[in-house]
Amino acid sequence: MKLLFFxxxxxxxxxxxxxxxxxxxEEAKKPKVTFVExxxxxxxxxxxxxxxxxxxxxxxxxxxxxxxxxxxxxxQKKYGEQYKxxxxxxxxxxxxxxxxxxRHEGFYPEAEIVKLLEAKGLKQKAK
Length: 127
Prior knowledge:
By secondary structure, this protein is α+β, with helices and mostly antiparallel strands. 48% of the residues lie in helices and 20% in strands. A four-stranded mixed beta sheet has the order 2-1-3-4. It is globular, with a radius of gyration of 21 Å.
C-alpha cells in the first residue's frame, strides 16, 4: 500500500511542477496595463487617437494591451455603457487586476499617456 502511494506521488509531482512553471509564464506575459480606447472611427478626435494608440503599443510592447471599441457600432455599444462614458473619445486605464486607475475624456496626447504609464512603473522598450 505504501508503495502504491509512493508511485502515485512520483507521478503527481512532475505534473504539479509543470503547472507552476506554466502559471509563471502566463503571468509574465500578462500586460501590466490595459489601455481601453472608447470612441468611433467616424469621430475626428477619435481618429487622432489612432496613431497615439499605435505609438503606445510600440513604446511599451507587452506591458500594455491596447483595446479599441467603436461605441457607435451596434455590437460594441455595450462597452460605452459598461465604462459609463459621457463622451468620445474616452480612455480608461486598467491595472493587471482589471481595476481602473485612470480615465481621460477627449484627445489624450501621447506624451501625457507615456507619463501616466511610466508613473505606474512601466518602462519604454529600448529603441
